[in-house]
Design a protein that fits this description.
4-stranded antiparallel β-sheet; postsynaptic cell membrane; alpha+beta; Beta-Lactamase; cell membrane; 219 residues; ER-Golgi transport
Length: 219
């Protein structure tokens, strides 16, 4: 079981803190001969697998590296177009590493803002008056848990679907936020959280939650 990441979103929908705690490795590297037996397509400034998944390479995986050198979006390390490079028989055999695309800082900001909007929509669509909005989203590989405070700050945790004690963890994170961010004289409300003590205590809380599950009294 594992906790993947933590997000803190202010009441205006801005991302003020994000921590990647654990990222499962799903990269696959293979050596290919010409012609390439996968169909690749450009998508959102990167090159992804559109057809032909096999041997751990899945549709949607992005090209991360060619011959051991990291690619930069749709271009190789030396500035060549990835699709043109892989379409040239003279460049084979070639080693390609595929995997899940790593979110950029801008993408994380955008997704946090989108969830803020979905949270508000969920609250308005609820047949119950005073609904709190989205508290959990579940997929086959992770669960997104959300806790919103009375002041509108949202704490979100992405974790393994089997991970227990997340509700208690969210409240523990709120406690850490209150103790080490709000009580910091150099911190301004609604602004990004940059506090070493906050980081240290948050990471400790995540480790405790992974190993022991729910927090006990006085933890």
């Amino acid at each position: 079981m594992a906790i993947f990441s933590v997000y803190v979103v202010n009441k205006a929908g801005g991302l003020i803190y994000q921590l990647d705690h654990y990222a499962p490795r799903a990269d696959t590297e293979k050596t290919f001969s010409f012609p390439l037996d996968l169909v690749l397509r450009p998508h959102d400034e990167r090159v992804v697998v559109a057809f032909g998944q096999r041997d751990g390479i899945r549709v949607g995986h992005a090209v991360l590296a060619i011959n051991g050198a990291e690619v930069n979006g749709r271009f190789t390390a030396d500035g060549k177009d990835v699709l043109e490079f892989l379409g040239n028989a003279a460049n084979y055999p070639v080693s390609i590493r595929f995997g899940r695309h790593r979110l950029s800082s801008n993408e994380k900001l955008m997704l946090a803002s989108m969830f803020h909007s979905l949270f508000a929509i969920g609250s308005q669509l609820s047949p119950e008056v005073g609904s709190s909005g989205i508290e959990m989203l579940e997929t086959d590989t992770f669960k997104l848990h959300c806790f919103q405070t009375l002041t509108g700050i949202k704490f979100m945790v992405l974790a393994d679907p089997r991970q227990t004690g997340i509700d208690a963890l969210l409240r523990k994170i709120y406690e850490i936020y209150s103790d080490f961010a709000l009580k910091n004289p150099f911190y301004s409300l609604e602004m990004p959280i940059r506090c070493e003590l906050f980081d240290q205590n948050l990471k400790l809380a995540l480790e405790v939650a992974e190993k022991a599950g729910p927090f006990g009294p006085g933890s």
